[in-house]
Amino acid sequence: MSTTLVISQGYLPVGTVTVQRAVQLYVDGKAEIEQAHPTRRFRSMKLVVPAPRVLRLRAGVRLPARLFGAAPLGGSNHNLFDRDGRRCLYCGRAEAEVRRAGGRLTRDHVMPLSRGGRDVWRNVATACEPCNNLKANRTPDEAGMPLLAEPRTPTTWELVRARHGDVSELLAFCANEAA
Questions:
Q1: CATH number for the domain harbouring residue 107
Q2: Within this chain, do residues 83 and 139 fall inside the same structural domain, yes or no?
Q3: Binning pLDDT at 50, 70 and 90, where does residue 1 land?
């Protein structure tokens, strides 16, 4: 699914939304298209809208407070995997390597839930199925499996950068427009 960078009135990056959501914000009058895809268009009976690559929010559009603080962990593992670079934090294998071996990435609780651990950013790590099964209901120290990186709470913007890679082209556009 394609995404659109959302920027504030002052050309500061806010986050990303799906292209469909970006078109909805534009049609509702909440945002302006700053940079569009050269060929993609959305068509209705009365309207043709270019697919936005960069969307600038109009004055008066309120931003959710969650964008400025810690990112939510949520029930999905996508944010967790993005935080950890889609690598197992025990053996270091990348997601593609894990899939080739017939496995998948999973959410591992550093301090197991059954032993009082919580489902929070600082207690979860990305693990491949073999490492997660090997660690079982133990802490990394007990299992003799040290973590390659310490779990931490990412910001929403860190997850945007992790998910979309190099957004420097879009940020350069924002800087040029703001100048």
A1: 1.10.30.50
A2: yes
A3: very low
User: Do 137 and 174 fall into the same domain?
Assistant: no
Scan for tokens 């959302």, then name that residue: 6
Q: 82 with 57, same domain?
A: no
Check pLDDT > 80 for residue 67. Answer: no
Number of structural domains (the chain) is 2
Distance CA 148, CA 17 (A): 31
Return d(Cα 84, Cα 110) in angstroms, integer: 14
**Band of the pLDDT at 176, cuts 50, 70, 90?**
low
Q: CB pairs under 8 A, 24+ apart, for 70-76? A: 70/121, 70/153, 70/154, 70/155, 70/156, 71/153, 71/154, 71/155, 71/156, 71/158, 71/159, 73/119, 73/120, 73/121, 73/124
Q: How far apart are CA 137 and CA 38, in angstroms?
A: 52
Give percent helix, percent strand, percent coil of the chain, each to the nearest 5.
35, 25, 40
Co-location of 54 and 106 in the same domain: no
